[in-house]
Amino acid sequence: MTQYPDIRLRKSPDRFNWWEVVEDCAVESKLPGMVIPAGYRTDFATIPRLLWPLMPPHGRMANAAIAHDYAYDSRLGEAEFGEKAARLRADVEFALRCLEDGVPDWQMSIAYIFVRLFGRKWWRN
Q1: CB neighbours of residue 92 within 10 Å
Q2: What single Pfam family name could you report for this chain, choosing any that match (predicted)?
């Protein structure tokens, strides 16, 4: 098992522009069960291609995006904290991880605003 930020990936064999975790990765989190399992698939940060020159999805926020996507896909903490609080925790942890990984403040702020504004749809799907 690896420890965040060491997430081991390979190109997904059947989905264009997606990647697959190849070894379980433990992530320090206030959300219970934050171990990204081998086989989990990600497209990193979901950013419109037009904005990639300013905010590349495969750039410094990639690891934070993988952990954030896993928290959303698994709805981590929802049973313990409720939907709103669990989602807020996932979003705040995403922002903090971005900063720890060297994402510029302005990029993190934009990404955080977008996950707060539009993340609810993904949390519920």
Answers
A1: 14
A2: DUF1353
